[in-house]
Structure formats: structure tokens, C-alpha cells
User: Fold this.
Amino acid sequence: MKDPAALAALRARVDFARARAQLADLPALDEEFVRAQLELLCEGCTSFAELERRGLLAHLTALVFAGERGASLDVVAPTHVSLPGGRRVAVRYELDRPPWIASRLQDFFGARVGPRVAAGAVPLVLHLLAPNQRAVQVTTDLAGFWERHYPALRRALMRRYPKHAWPEDPLTATPPAPRGRRR
Assistant:
């Protein structure tokens, strides 16, 4: 398989959907199931190039998205979410960890709560990034962050990144437009 990380991401997304959102009819993408599907793909192949063209990941994705399950998976465990300013960010699903996203702290201006998955039942863990793309806070409680941690963090970030906006009231501030789009 060319992209084992993509298989791991699909597996974690499906596991989340099966466990947290009660989509138990999704196939479990465990080693045994993946191996059995790989054996099916191998039937009739005469070369590794032919097997690669058939695509294990595409085959597994088609199985997961068969019928109406796929639409449910996209609702329960979307690959991306949109933030208040319009930026789309990838949702990361990992085994034994809640799903999370990472984006610039300014992308959350104007929001009291962060995005949720599982039809709104599960809050995403937010990795709030400074302009240098390093996390300055990890939280699921955005309102609490604005109230308790942002004032002190704002002072430090204003000194370190003076060209960026650090409003006193982040709940009334407008998040910046994604690059390439101006408001």
C-alpha cells in the first residue's frame, strides 16, 4: 500500500463512527478484514502494478460508503469542518483519542463553541495555534479559554506577533478570511 497513513486515518474514522455514533453496521477495518479484502483484490492479478491500480484504499472506502452508510459516516465523522471565518480544516481521528483539529487562534474569533462531530454530540479538541503554527492552547471549552486564558495569552502574543490582530474581546472580533479570499 502506497499510503499507510491514509489507511490508518480511514480506520480511525470508521472506529470512531462505530464506537461513538452507533454506526455499528460499518465494517470494522481491522487487520483481518483488510487482509481478506486485499486477498480479494489479488484474485486475477498478474503483477503488483495491476494490484496497485485496483487500489486497496479505494476498495475499502467503497465498502465503507456502500449504500446510505457513507452519507452517515460523513455526518458522524466528517473529514473536514468549517470554522467561523470560512477556513476548512481537517479533522484528525486517532485510536483511543477524541477527534481534534488544529487552526490559528484567530480563526476562532467570534465563536463561543468549537465545531462538533457525531451529529453535534462530540466536541472537537481544539489545538489553537499561534502565528508560528505551534499550539498555544488545547481545549474543548472555547468560551472558558476566552474568559480565563486568552487575556494573559493575548499580552504575550501581542509582544511576540505585533503585526497580528489580538482584540480585547475575541467574541466580537471577526476571524480573518482564509488566504486568497478577502472580505
About this structure: The radius of gyration is 20 Å. The chain has a mean pLDDT of 88. Strands lie at 80-82, 88-90, 92-94, 97-104, 116-117, 122-123, 125-129, 135-139. The helical segments are 4-20, 31-42, 48-54, 56-64, 69-76, 142-160.
